[in-house]
Amino acid sequence: MDIKGLLETNDVREEHTFSSEAETVPDTPAKHNPSKRKRSEEKPAASSNTAVMSAATKRPSASLRFEPSFLGTTKMSGLVRVIGNFLQHYLLNDTVGVMEIEAKVGNIIDPQTNKRLVLPVLSECVLNPEFAPSVNFRSDMTQSEHKHYNDFLNTAFVNAQRPGRAPMKYKHTKEIDKFFEKASHGKVRVSRNVADNTLMACIEKRRIADLFVYCPNNHFDFRISISDEIPVPLPKDESKPSFSREKDRVGYVHQDIHIDLTQTYQKNARSGTTSKRHELEVEFGNTPKLREYAESARNGSPLAWERVLNLFVENIRILLLQTA
Amino acid sequence: MDIKGLLETNDVREEHTFSSEAETVPDTPAKHNPSKRKRSEEKPAASSNTAVMSAATKRPSASLRFEPSFLGTTKMSGLVRVIGNFLQHYLLNDTVGVMEIEAKVGNIIDPQTNKRLVLPVLSECVLNPEFAPSVNFRSDMTQSEHKHYNDFLNTAFVNAQRPGRAPMKYKHTKEIDKFFEKASHGKVRVSRNVADNTLMACIEKRRIADLFVYCPNNHFDFRISISDEIPVPLPKDESKPSFSREKDRVGYVHQDIHIDLTQTYQKNARSGTTSKRHELEVEFGNTPKLREYAESARNGSPLAWERVLNLFVENIRILLLQTA
Fold first, then answer.
1. Which of A2, A292, B10, B272 is 20 to 30 Å from B21 at the Cα level?
2. Chain A contact for B70, CB < 8 A?
3. How far is B171 from chain A (nearest CA, A)?
4. Prediction ipTM score
């Protein structure tokens, strides 16, 4: 593109004070346009710098659209960028099986104190993976927090049905998961619908990687986990699981992002007691599509990738702010 | 707004599987719409949850606009939110004098090691002010980094002159600052244009607050400083400053945000040596307007405030990424 042309179409160019000191450091943009420099020399210097700056600042710009930066574009935030790099790495290098990518809401626990981690920062940030192995994660909340999220998501669901909105969907499921130890390492999970015993899944789930995001200004942190879910044959005897749990879940779906609010009841076979947990997670509903976006980003078309990453993080952020 | 009306205008409502288990926990949004519940009971349950989820996920939505979250809106990131709260606090509580709000690019220094601070995090975050007093800040860069920024900003300037863009302005100034100790606490700074000795400013600058932003993925961090600049009378004898420095600055202005790239030369009167520094800072050019936005945000209209905060942080982010 012709630089002279660019400058000539600039309707406020008379307001610029082009320096005639061509060889000084720092350089001014005038060096890109020698013909312009001559013109600026013909123009008397503004009476004072203050006046020039003031004119620049006060010039009405109502007719121009607002730009999100001096480049006219935005960059991904550091948080989204790091999460994106993490996911892209595994999406592009581990293409076997059905990948599950989910963020669980909860708290990063310092094992030294058994309390929430404390770092001297005030805003959300990704933990360095070299440091992260020394922390735990507790993905639980109180029943009243769970109820609050349920109400909030139900309202969001109703609002998302308005004309022009991208509608949300939801469904309520009750499943029972039975876990079976494998002769080799690992566990097989058989999930069945509680109502009619329909087989929902029989998989071996393997954790691939975790990324911890510390959110000191919120009540909760989150952990992003990547797992492989490999379909496996049904165990021979389903009546003898090593343990089982019941999941009562309301699942919301918006633009391929799943938000699941789940109560789990786990029976301890020995003590006969039941432990109850309340979980909230945000999951990519379409990892093959996500992998396509990650590949396109690698090949120079990052738009869809950045958009879906921002969507994922934004949804988590909104949920965390609900209890801030 | 009428909730029943909202649901009735939902063109995909037939795809929802409304649970008939009205009293189960978690609740489903069906409780908002008793008339709807009856209808759902008339509809046979979907054959399997997987099929329902799959239909929900795969439904073509090309005709709908993409939404940035399930609320259809975005929240400020934690980083921008903390910076906004910090600025808002001082803008609304300290309305005397001319406030200067600027972000300097540089490095947060751990005084124990005299090297850059190391925290176990991977993405940009605000330091907790209770921790921050124990760190230093070094707002300097190499001459070649400075040159790189100069070239980058000159290119940005040229691009911003394209039709439809919000144009950038720039000016090149050389000033000399002379500093005078006050009998009481503090310093007076007299700034004059080098070329013609024009008085640019005679002020007493007082630091009000600092906020440190750690950017472990970038070469530089940044520090946001709020200062009062109080106009004061000229000192009686300008020939006897306690020290003086020369500033060679290229200032760029885009949408009321100033980006200043400065070389300073400071002479040490005793040793006769000159020290040279290279600085980059991003400053709000119109703090009275910024204060108006902060007030509007407090009164329930946060749009302009959020926009200009995002602009400020985005501009800094772009500059930091230039050396990543």
1. B10
2. yes
3. 6
4. 0.79
CA gyration radius for chain B?
28
User: Would you call A298 an interface residue with chain B, using a CB distance cutoff of 8 Å?
Assistant: no
**How many residues in total does chain A contain?**
324
- Burial readout A215-236 (b: 16 or more C-beta within 10 A, e: otherwise): bbbbebbbbbbbbbbeebeebe
Q: pLDDT tens, A32-71? A: 443 443 333 333 333 333 333 333 344 444 456 899 999 9
Query: Do the strands B169-181 and B136-138 form a parallel or antiparallel pair, or are they unpaired?
Result: unpaired
Distance from CA of B293 to the nearest CA of A (A): 15
User: Confidence class of residue B238 from pLDDT cuts 50, 70 and 90?
Assistant: confident
Phi and psi, residue A53, nearest 5°: -60, -40
B271 at interface of A, judged by CB pairs closer than 8 A:
no
How confident is the model at residue B30, as a pLDDT? 54
| Shortest Cα–Cα distance, B96 to chain A (Å) | 20
Chain A residues whose CB is inside 8 A of the B128 CB are 120-122, 216
Residues 203-262 in B contacting A (C-alpha not used; CB under 8 Å): 214-218, 248-259, 261
Report domain extents, chain A. 3-58, 78-321
Q: What topology does CATH give the domain A78-321?
A: mRNA Triphosphatase Cet1; Chain A (3.20.100)
Burial class (CB within 10 angstroms; exposed 0-12, middle 13-18, buried 19+) of B95:
exposed
